[in-house]
Amino acid sequence: MLSRLEREIELTARHIAILRLVVREGPIGIIKLSELSGCPQHKVRYSLRVLEQKNLIKPSSQGAVATPKAERFVKTLPRKIKELSEKLESL
């Protein structure tokens, strides 16, 4: 039962790590993201697709760039993580 939650947390952590790199380094391509994150290119590509669908990044000819929504998301992330952590601890 908890293995699914654990997989979702790992996947979300990767998406967030990729997003933070795009915010900090953008515009940035898949190869550079793979090198900096240590994730294989196919996983980086998947994370970029998910982030684009959520309107957190957009593609450009130089690579992925963060949207204004992404910067707001990253700023509120510590608070959201704390809230989720408290919910889990209360189980």
Automatic annotation (TrEMBL):
<dbReference type="InterPro" id="IPR036390">
    <property type="entry name" value="WH_DNA-bd_sf"/>
</dbReference>
<dbReference type="InterPro" id="IPR036388">
    <property type="entry name" value="WH-like_DNA-bd_sf"/>
</dbReference>
<protein>
    <recommendedName>
        <fullName>Winged helix-turn-helix transcriptional regulator</fullName>
    </recommendedName>
</protein>
